[in-house]
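Why do we care about 3D structure at all? Because function follows from shape, and shape follows, mostly, from sequence. That is the central idea of this module. The next example makes it concrete: a single protein chain, its amino acid sequence, and then its structure expressed as tokens.
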Amino acid sequence: NVCTIPEDDTLRIEPGVEVRFVMPENRFDPMILNGTLIAHGAENDSVTFSSQLEPGISLIESEGSGCVNAEFVRTLYVGRFLFGEFDAVEIHRSRTNWSRFNEARVLILSHNDFSRAGMSAMGVREQLEFHNNRLIGFNQITIQNFNGAEVHSNTGVTVDDEVSEITIGGFNGLEVFENTNIRFTIGGIFGGADLSAHDNKWGILDISEVNGVEVRDNTFVDNILVTSCGNVEISSNYILTTLGVNGLTRSEIYENVVLGGYSHYPRSFSANACISTTVRNNSFCFFRPNHLGVA
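And the structure:
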């Protein structure tokens, strides 16, 4: 009941084909992909993967050498619940839902629709691209442990007041730009180095434990929160509610406009325990310094 594609073999799926998995008893992985899966549909004739189980079940897994190249595919689930290691995963113009790539050499996701999905990529060794995707409703996407990446031109579509979240950590070199209506949590317990976040609209930027941060030219962003970061430059942002900084060192905050208008307790600017930090030429509508340590 389990389909295995050996390491040196390739399975090609043509436009219009529907692949129906019958899930084996006590298993969530009817396809073991150690070779290559190529599923290329067409704009009006997609490839479809389905099973008798609810969405969220892992259909394709790899033990380290599997490659996925998909375009115009519906309901594609890649990875497994706890562990999965792929060589390369490349998915374009598809409808993808719950996926977990615990590790991959290459991960490229572009022009896809994520619909109330969860995706976790725990390690990308060489190449990471995540761009021009549409996140519909509440999605939780986590990307960790990589060197150098661009996350850009993604759009969150609010459904029932739910907004998508992208969590990124454990990186060395990251550019986040031209995204719309997405909440980003960057750094966190996994930290990071060398971040540039610019030209994003709406949404939230929540950044912590990152050394080397540039946040500039973001517009109509609800909140920008920067915590426990060093070598920070925050400039020329147009912020609807709050700019909050805490525990910054060697930082500059300048030429931002903060309205502070969407809160029951409006506070447009909050700063705590900052060292060697300069604040200049900003416009704060509700300025409330709170133990501001500025030199």
